[in-house]
Specification:
By secondary structure, this protein is α+β, with helices and mostly antiparallel strands. The chain has 3 helices and 8 strands, in the order βααββββββαβ. Strands 2-3-4-5-6-7-1-8 form an 8-stranded antiparallel beta sheet.
C-alpha cells in the first residue's frame, strides 16, 4: 500500500543580488516518486515527450516548444503552463541540460519558477520507479509576498498536480500506479 503523500517545504532567502537590488525569494524543494508496473521504456518515452503532457497530465494546460532539442536531447527550451485547483497559472521555461536515455532528464527552469528539475528512472522489483526532484524559487512578487501564509496551499497545489501526473501516466500506459509519494 502506498504511503501517504506529504509536503514539506524549505524556504530560503536569495541575497546574491547586488546590495541595492536585494530581493527575497521563496525556495521550494519537492521530491516525487511514482511506481508503475510497466517497463522503463514506455515510461521514459511518455515523460520525455513533454509536448504530449497536456493530453494525459491534468494540470498541464500547455507546452510550447520554443527551441528544439539537439540530437542528444539537450539544448531545447519549452514553455510550460500549469494550473491545478488554485485559480492561477504558473508559466515557466525549461532548458534541457542533461539526458541519459532511460535513466535521467535534467532541466533548468526560468520564468515564474527558477531552478532545477531532474527526472530519474529506475527498474526495481519488477516495476519502474520515477523520481522527480524539483528545486525552485518563485519569482512572482505576489507569490513571494504570500509565501509565509500561503506555503501550505502552494504545497497542496503542487501535490495535486503531481498526483494527477502519476495517475494520468498510469492511465496512458494502461498501467497500475503501485505507489506515489511527495516529500521534500
Amino acid at each position: 500500500m502506498p504511503r501517504p503523500a506529504r509536503n514539506l517545504l524549505a524556504a530560503r532567502t536569495n541575497r546574491s543580488a547586488p546590495p541595492n537590488e536585494e530581493r527575497e525569494v521563496t525556495g521550494y524543494r519537492f521530491l516525487t516518486l511514482w511506481r508503475l508496473d510497466v517497463p522503463v521504456g514506455p515510461v521514459w518515452d511518455a515523460v520525455y515527450d513533454t509536448n504530449a503532457w497536456p493530453s494525459w497530465w491534468p494540470g498541464v494546460r500547455r507546452v510550447q516548444e520554443l527551441v528544439p532539442r539537439g540530437p542528444d536531447g539537450v539544448g531545447g527550451i519549452s514553455r510550460f503552463t500549469f494550473r491545478s485547483v488554485l485559480p492561477y497559472d504558473v508559466v515557466f521555461d525549461v532548458r534541457s541540460v542533461r539526458v541519459e536515455r532511460h535513466r535521467l532528464l535534467e532541466g533548468i527552469s526560468f520564468g515564474e519558477l527558477a531552478g532545477t528539475g531532474r527526472w530519474r528512472f529506475f527498474r526495481e522489483d519488477g516495476a519502474t520507479a520515477v523520481v522527480y526532484e524539483w528545486d525552485v524559487e518563485t519569482t512572482r512578487r505576489w507569490m513571494n509576498a504570500l509565501a509565509p501564509v500561503a506555503r501550505p496551499a502552494f504545497a497542496w497545489n503542487h501535490d495535486r498536480i503531481m498526483r494527477a501526473g502519476g495517475e494520468g501516466l498510469a492511465a496512458l500506459l494502461g498501467a497500475t500506479l503501485l505507489g506515489r509519494s511527495q516529500v521534500s
